Amino acid sequence: MTAFTRRTLVKGAAAAGVLTGSGLTDWARAWAQASPFKPEAGATLNLLRWRRFVEAEDAQFNKMVAAFTQATGCKVNVSSESFDDVQPKASVAANTGTGPDLIWSLYSVPHLFPQKCLEVTDVADYLGKKYGGWVPLAEAYGKSGGKWISIPVAVNGGYINYRISQVKAAGFNEIPQDTKGFLELCKALKAKGTPSGFPLGRATGDGNAFAHWLLWSHGAAQVDENEKITINSPETRAALRYAKELWDTFIPGTAAWNDSNNNRAFLSGEISLTANGISIYAAAKASQDAKQREIAADMDHAFWPIGPIGKPAEIQLAFPMFGMTYSRYPNACKAFMAFILEAENFNPWLEAAQGYLTHLLNAYDNNPVWTADPKAKVFRESAKRSFPAGYKGPINEKAATAIADFIVVDLFANHCTGKEDVEGAIRVAERQLRRIYR
C-alpha cells in the first residue's frame, strides 16, 4: 500500500511522469483503500465546472475523473459552462435544492449561499496538514463562519501579456513596475500603432481583474473592514481619472469585451499588450500555425504594476469547489475533492495547465511547471499576491453579490465610456452598494 506523505510530492516531476495509464489506476485504488473519505455505496456524482481554456488541462482532469471512478466505483458526470454561466446555474441549484452534487465555481460563489454548501473542514484539514498548509487566500475563500464550505482547488493567475518586440519598439525594455510608467508605455504603444486593450465589459475573469486592480492599486475599496461603504473617496476619484487616461490608449471596443475577446485580439495581432492568464501563450505555442508560434516566441508576462498603495493589489480568479447539502452522496463529494488535490494527481494536472492554474497549497511551489519555462514564473505567485473579493471587507454573501453584479467593473466602464463623469460613476456604484450592504 502506498504511503501518502509529503515525500511523494518532493519527487515532483517523477510522480507526474510515472503515474499514467495503469500506474495511475493502481495508485488510485491504493489511495481509495487508505483514504479517510469513502464514497457511499452506489454513489454517482454530477459535477458542474467552468469551461477549460487550455485543452491539455481538461484532458488531464478527465484522466483524474476516470481514475477516481475506477478506484472507487463512483461515476462522475462532468458538465461545463462558460465563466459567466457558472454562477447563475449554481444559484438556481442552491435555490431549488436540485442540480449538481459538486460545483467548481469562481471567486466567492459559495458565499452567496453558505448554508447550502456541504461543510468540508475535514477535507481542508487533511490536505493542509499533508501539503504544507494553505495560503491565506484559500482560507478567505474556503471558510465561512469558522468552517470550510469549499475547497479552493486553484487560482487562474492573470498578469500582463505583452509582445516583447513591440514594447521595445515603443522605447521600453520591460513593463514598468509602477502605474505612472505603465501609462506612459500604453501611450507609446498607441503612438506606434500597436495599442493595448483591457476588457471593461462584464468579463468575469479579465474584466474583474482589470477593474479591481485599478481600484485597489490606488488605495480605494468598496467597503472597509467593518463593511462601511467607502467607494466615495479621493482614492476612487484618482483611480477613475487614471483609468480614463489608460482607456484612451486602448483599441476601440473593449467596453464590450468578454473573457475571450482579448485573447483573440492579441493572437490576431490587433493589440500588443493585455492582461490574461497564460492561455494566450499556451495556445500560440501549441498552434500548428507558424504565425501563432512566432507570437509565442515574441511574448512574455509581467506582474501588474504597483500603484500609489505601494504594494501588489490584484484580484486573481479563484476556483473553489463545493458540494451541495442536498446531495445524496456527501462522502463521495469529499472523497473526490481530496482525491484531485493529492500530489499524484495535482502535480501532473498543474503541468498540463502550463501555468494557467496556480496552487493554494504551499507544497506545490515545487512543481516543475514554474521552472521549466521562465515565461510562466510570475504565475506561481498569483495566489500569494491576490486580495480576496470584497477587500477590505470580509468574504460573505454581500461581497459575493457585489462581484456577481460587476459593481467595480461597471464603475470604471461608466466613466471611461463617457456614460458618467467621475462623480456620477461613484454615485451609481454607491447606490448599488447600499442595496447590498444594509
Structure, briefly:
This protein has two domains: 6-157 and 317-385, D-Maltodextrin-Binding Protein, domain 2 (3-Layer(aba) Sandwich), CATH 3.40.190; 159-315 and 405-436, D-Maltodextrin-Binding Protein, domain 2, CATH 3.40.190.10. Helices cover 47% and strands 11% of the residues.
Features:
5-stranded mixed sheet; 438 residues; D-Maltodextrin-Binding Protein, domain 2; alpha+beta; 3-stranded antiparallel sheet
Mean pLDDT: 93
Question: How far apart are the termini?
Answer: 55 Å
Name of the CATH superfamily of the largest domain: Periplasmic binding protein-like II
Order of adjacent strands in the largest pleated sheet: 2-1-3-10-6
The amount of beta strand, in percent, is: 5-15%
Can you tell me the CATH topology of the largest domain? D-Maltodextrin-Binding Protein, domain 2
The CATH level-2 architecture of the largest domain is identified as: 3-Layer(aba) Sandwich
At the first level of CATH, the class of the largest domain is Alpha Beta
Total helices: the number is: 21
* Class computed from helices, strands and strand pairing: alpha+beta
Low-confidence stretches: 1-18
| Count of strand segments | 10
Estimate the global geometry from the Cα principal axes: globular
Helix content: 40-55%
The largest β sheet comes out as: 5 strands, mixed
- The Cα radius of gyration reads 22 Å
Taken together, the total number of domains comes to 2
